[in-house]
Write a structure and sequence with these properties.
Helix content: under 10%
CATH topology of the domain at 86-229: Jelly Rolls
Shape: rod-shaped
Strand content: 35-45%
Largest sheet: 7 strands, antiparallel
Radius of gyration: 32 Å
Number of strands: 15
CATH class of the domain at 86-229: Mainly Beta
């Protein structure tokens, strides 16, 4: 018998119905729909063809009840977020800065750059990655000798416009009547709302009474710049 037309199949006894025998293949042909309005129990669901499996349609809601656990042994994409793009760079060499002039900080070492978004001392927001970013930077600004550094500033520039700055004005330990400040470390942080293609740079400014001011690298972590995208805000 090759075809049976029937509107309903019930078990001959009890309430359990079995379709097929071990080793059989039950096929629902293309264009036919299989609708189950109650519970389906199975140990595995795989795609009928290829390697892509779609669960539900746009607008559907899937609920994992309290007490159930989802275990993932593969790669999960598109869930929540991962705080990227993210980057951190630093300069391991001293950088001279002109007196009374804002100078862009340079960086010669990348600790990480998840989206290859940092180049030419500039972070550029990648396409499709607009949002809120937490940014941070540090500069160690030094005068040539003791008591020559009057002031120092580090500034975030967004699209080459000053947006967030931190300043230092001459202060320090006083020995007799002479201030003995020669260098100061400035740390700056900011939460910035950025759009795709926006650029972020760090500039430093210093004022000295004499000699050459420098951004000093120290152990390689005295001059750095970094940031990452915030999720859920």
């Amino acid at each position: 018998m090759s075809l049976i037309n029937v509107n309903k199949v019930d078990p001959s006894t009890g309430t359990a119905l079995e379709i097929g025998t071990s080793g059989d293949t039950i096929t629902v042909p293309t264009g036919a729909g299989l609708t189950v309005t109650d519970e389906v129990k199975t140990n595995k669901i795989s795609p009928a063809t290829g390697t892509a499996f779609t669960l539900g349609d746009s607008g559907d809601t899937f609920t994992v009840p309290s007490g159930a656990t989802i275990t993932n042994s593969g790669t999960a994409t598109g869930f929540g977020g991962d705080n990227t793009p993210a980057f951190q760079v630093r300069n391991t060499s001293n950088q001279d800065v002109s007196d009374g002039v804002s100078t862009q900080m340079t960086f010669n070492t990348e600790d990480f750059d998840t989206d290859s978004a940092f180049a030419s001392d500039t972070f550029t927001v990648p396409s499709g990655e607009g949002g809120k970013y937490f940014m941070y930077a540090k500069a160690k600004i030094s005068g040539a000798t003791v008591n020559t550094l009057n002031s120092g500033v580090i500034i975030f520039r967004i699209n080459d416009a000053e947006r967030q700055g931190l300043e230092f004005f001459g202060s320090g330990i006083v020995s007799g009547s002479v201030e003995i400040v020669q260098a100061v470390g400035l740390n700056i942080t900011a939460t910035l709302t950025l759009s795709a293609a926006d650029t972020v740079k760090v500039y430093a400014y210093s004022n000295v009474t004499s000699g050459q001011a420098q951004l000093q690298a120290g152990d390689g972590y005295s001059l750095y710049f970094g940031g990452y995208k915030l999720i859920g805000v």
